[in-house]
Write a structure and sequence with these properties.
The complex is a heterodimer of chains A (302) and B (547).
Chain A: H1 2-11, H2 13-31, E1 42-43, H3 49-52, E2 54-55, H4 59-66, H5 70-88, H6 90-101, H7 105-116, H8 123-134, H9 140-147, H10 159-187, H11 191-199, H12 204-228, H13 236-242, H14 248-251, H15 254-263, H16 268-297
Antiparallel strand pairs in A: 1-2
Helix pairs in contact in A: 4-16, 5-10, 6-10, 7-10, 8-13, 10-12, 12-16, 15-16
Chain B: H1 2-8, H2 16-25, H3 30-35, E1 60-67, H4 81-90, E2 92-99, H5 101-114, E3 121-123, H6 128-133, H7 141-147, H8 149-157, H9 159-165, E4 175-178, H10 180-185, E5 188-193, H11 194-199, H12 208-220, E6 232-234, H13 239-243, E7 261-263, E8 269-271, H14 276-290, H15 303-311, E9 315-321, H16 324-334, E10 341-343, E11 356-358, E12 362-368, H17 375-387, H18 389-397, E13 404-407, E14 410-413, H19 415-418, H20 426-432, H21 451-458, H22 461-471, E15 474-476, H23 485-511, H24 518-546
Parallel strand pairs in B: 1-2, 1-3, 6-9, 11-15
Antiparallel strand pairs in B: 3-12, 4-12, 5-9, 5-10, 7-8, 13-14
Helix pairs in contact in B: 8-9, 8-17, 14-23, 17-18, 23-24
Classes of the chains: A mainly alpha (302), B alpha/beta (547).
């Protein structure tokens, strides 16, 4: 046993050296700092440091669960995430399938490049654009509404509109970029499959449904699992830039609440506790979706 | 900025228990000093006045962290005339560790959380009591008593200032800018287009009914004469709290300065947003909003958006510091409109004295960190830049012969400052020299440190007249009193829920998203802990009165 291990090490020594930098990176920057999580169970006091601060048990968690806004925050966070996933997840897949059917190479390239572009705009600028476009007085959307004979809408002041604005702008920003990975998967499909289908008399629609789509299913499932594992992480910066007290009802998420309570008031223990709570839920979701997927489709992360 | 200061009062992580614990096992550290019976600074033995320069030039360095110069092109780090002069006078080289202002609280907050390698002197990002209980700064009482003759004199002349800087445990942990004089010379009020009033044949509104008539006329009378009803009669900053200035008509202190908390005649702190008068006020705002008289975007308004509305000749009324009338007029002139912005008298109503509030006199605080290598030198240096007459002259008036000159023994600003050759504004011109700094400095209501605000007005008689017009209405806001760590923790916990509920519910009332159910609003606010908040505030207020 021991002898075999030595032998394996000896055989793979160059491969091991090659993986070292990445391993070391993860250990130093991702695993070592994890010990800081313990401040979630402490009353963090900077002078005493992370290890020296006194223990507080689950008091920080208690404070969060006791808040009258706890359920609303949880609901808002999950709903924004679920809507984003529901509407946003299929968009790049459909886009990639459509793009793949384009025959003109130059037109295809152009569409692809244009659809990537919003991905590179910083979230602050995106939020600024949304605010400008939806301004009830002179935003372009409202000007169009007025011209069409409707009353202008205060999109960002109305809780009913917040999720729609948030999710649709998110889709607009990310669908082009998100389609890259599907296009890569499509490019890897064996062309012989298409040739065989053509001989059998399949039309384009049939080919998409019976060859392209099934071939990228594993990619889709892996990405879906990863996305579900991030369900509790809403793009908090974007919420912060777009919300205001009038829309708290649908817009206030766990991240923004922690920002107001934890960071602005330098209550780092509280912020760490809430974040830990978030991550535990994420892990539970990730593991359960992975398990379901393994059972049902035999594709899974591990 | 105004809102931030309210937020900063902050949660306290450390309980008294852990503080005692830290003290017992760390004798000799700065914590141990904190438990000593604090001595009242002004009762301490008079110190020997120090001599300039403090050290042989170039032999000592102080590391100072703060927000950078508000005139961004001239960073403190690259040297400014005023601070070069301080280096020359004191012999102490300043090593600036500056951040852009908008990032200061977050960036410095993270550095303080690491608690290592802190600068000698830094601007607080939180309440001094919390920062002290985190063990990051040292009490200054003994240092002031022994090495800061000017600060002692300042406290002797202004006992209120010492009271406000003293923490509940009797220590002074930080020294604070005082802007009382500046607020006096530049009140925050309601600004209106006088030329629109004249155009429509209206006189300046006083009561809320008259205000309604005027705003209605702005909306329907097409005062900007473009044939479209695109005027925004009122567009405030600070959302509902900005509109709170109109609460003057009902004796309500709703603006961000007091933030709804104010002592009544028998010295009991009340919360004004839940008073019966506030209901009438909210109904009035609801009427205005539903008729399109308030900017439909007012809850998201930033001053950039208001500026843009003003330069496009759309906005009839806004709220701001009165000195902005010049800026607004200038912006509109650039856009080809001869506008005439003026400050109005505060709205009045039966049975109430109309008022505008003055901001809290004390601003940001600066403290000496536990890592300071030479706290005595740091104290002397702070004393000189903050409370000596020569130091105050430099930070308020800038450089003699450039930004000011002496006339009849009094400093007066030059035309270089008021009509800067490169077109800088008054404040920008001074800041380009490093004056009006992001450091502790004094603009008092009276005494030797009160000259600057008046000197600025002297250069602008028209503005001066507007300031005099509202001077009699200025009242102090609810005093800002330092919390004990326990108070801070409880207030922060209760406030985060009450604040969320109140701002959200009232906005919905005003915009008509939910019908006004006042009884439920008041009872919920109380159920969320308003009674306890008032109890704590009352306890603080009484401590302040008896100090």
């Amino acid at each position: 046993m021991f002898y075999q291990a030595i032998k394996a090490l000896n055989r793979d020594k160059f491969l091991l050296v090659l993986t070292m930098p990445v391993l070391i990176y993860f250990v130093i920057f991702h695993y070592v700092p994890m010990y800081g999580i313990i401040i979630a169970f402490k009353q963090f006091r900077p002078l005493d440091g992370i290890l020296g601060s006194s223990w507080a048990g689950v008091q920080n968690f208690q404070l969060f669960f006791d808040s009258i806004y706890f359920w609303r925050l949880l609901k808002n966070t999950l709903l924004i995430s679920i809507y984003s996933l529901f509407w946003g997840f299929p968009a790049p897949i459909i886009f990639a399938l459509l793009l793949n059917e384009l025959k003109n190479r130059y037109f295809k390239r152009m569409v692809q490049t244009i659809s990537y572009l919003p991905h590179f705009i910083s979230i602050v600028v995106i939020a600024g654009m949304i605010v400008t476009f939806t301004n009830p007085l002179d935003g372009i959307i409202n000007l169009a509404l007025v011209k069409l004979g409707f009353a202008p809408i205060g999109f960002l002041n109305d809780p009913d509109w917040f999720r729609t604005i948030f999710v649709s702008s998110g889709i607009w920003q990310t669908f082009g970029w998100g389609s890259i990975i599907y296009l890569a998967a499509i490019a890897g499909i064996n062309p012989q499959l298409y040739e065989a289908a053509e001989i059998d008399g399949a039309n384009r629609w049939k080919k998409v449904m019976h060859i392209t789509l099934p071939s990228i299913i594993p990619t889709i499932i892996i990405l879906l699992i990863l996305n579900v594992g991030n369900l509790m992480d809403v793009g908090f910066e974007k919420v912060l830039l777009l919300y205001n007290p009038a829309t708290y009802e649908t817009a206030d998420v766990i991240g923004t609440f922690v920002y107001r309570r934890g960071i602005l008031n330098s209550d780092f223990s509280f912020a760490a506790a809430v974040n830990l709570f978030n991550n535990v839920i994420n892990i539970i979701l990730l593991v359960s979706v992975n398990r379901i997927s393994r059972k049902v489709s035999e594709t899974s992360l591990w | 900025m105004l809102l931030n200061r309210k937020w900063v009062s902050g949660i306290v992580v450390c309980t008294a228990f852990s503080m005692l614990l830290a003290c017992s096992n760390k004798a000799g550290s700065s914590d141990a000093v904190a438990t000593k019976e604090p001595s009242k600074v002004t009762e301490g033995s008079q110190s020997e006045p120090y001599k300039l320069p403090f050290v042989e030039p170039g032999t000592a360095t102080l590391r100072v962290a703060s927000g950078d110069n508000l005139y961004a092109p001239n960073s403190y780090a690259q040297g400014t005339a005023v601070w070069d002069e301080f280096e020359k006078l004191t012999g102490v080289k300043i090593e600036w560790e500056v951040f852009p202002n908008s990032q200061y609280v977050e960036s410095m907050g993270v550095r303080l959380a690491a608690a290592r390698n802190l600068p000698d002197i830094f601007r607080l990002v939180d309440s001094p009591v919390k920062t002290a209980s985190d063990g990051l700064i040292m009490p200054l009482n003994d240092l002031i008593a022994e090495h800061a003759p000017n600060i002692q004199q300042l406290f002797k002349d202004n006992p209120d200032m010492e009271r406000m800087m003293t923490a509940p445990d009797g220590n002074i942990y930080s020294i604070h800018s005082n802007s009382a004089g500046a607020y006096m010379a530049d009140p925050f009020g309601i600004l209106i287009r006088k030329d629109w009033l004249d155009e429509l044949g209206l006189k300046e509104p006083e009561t809320l009914d008259q205000w309604y008539e005027v705003l209605k006329a702005f909306k329907t009378g097409d005062p900007n004469k473009n044939g479209k009803p695109d005027e925004i009669p009122i567009s405030p900053e600070y959302s509902l709290k900005g509109l709170g200035l109109f609460g003057s008509a009902m004796g309500l202190h709703l603006f961000v300065y007091s933030d709804g908390y104010y002592p009544n005649k028998s010295e009991v702190i009340e919360y004004h947003w839940i008073k019966d008068e506030a209901k009438t006020f909210i109904e009035w705002l609801n009427k205005l909003y539903s008729e399109g008289l308030i900017d439909p975007n007012f809850m998201n308004n930033s001053y950039e958006q208001i500026d843009s509305g003003i330069s496009r000749d759309l906005i009839g009324t806004t709220v701001h510091f009165v000195n902005n009338v010049n800026r607004f007029n200038g912006m509109q002139k650039d856009a080809g409109v001869a506008a005439d912005w003026v400050i109005t008298n505060p709205p009045s109503g039966p049975g109430h004295e109309p008022f505008y509030e003055l901001g809290a006199p004390l601003g940001s605080g600066w403290a000496i960190s536990k890592d300071a290598k030479d706290p005595v030198l740091a104290m002397k240096w702070l004393d000189y830049i903050y409370a000596s007459e020569a130091g105050n002259r430099l930070v308020t008036f800038g450089i003699e012969g450039v930004s000011y000159e002496m006339k009849d023994g009094k400093p007066q600003f030059t035309d270089w400052t008021s009509k800067h050759p490169d077109g800088l504004s008054f404040n920008e011109a001074l800041r380009s020299l490093g004056a009006m700094p992001n450091m502790p400095w004094l603009r008092m209501m009276d005494g030797p440190f009160s000259l600057q605000p008046q000197a600025i007005l002297d250069k602008d008689p028209a503005l001066s007249a507007q300031v005099s017009k509202v001077k009699e209405y200025l009242v102090p806001s609810n005093p800002v009193i330092l919390d004990t760590p326990e108070e801070a923790e409880e207030l922060a916990r209760l406030n985060s829920e009450v604040e969320t509920y109140v701002s959200e519910t009232l906005l919905k009332f005003v915009t008509g998203q939910t019908p006004i159910d006042w009884e439920k609003f008041v009872s919920t606010t109380k159920a969320l802990g308003m009674d306890r908040i008032l109890e704590i505030k009352q306890q603080k207020y009484e401590r302040y009165l008896n100090q």
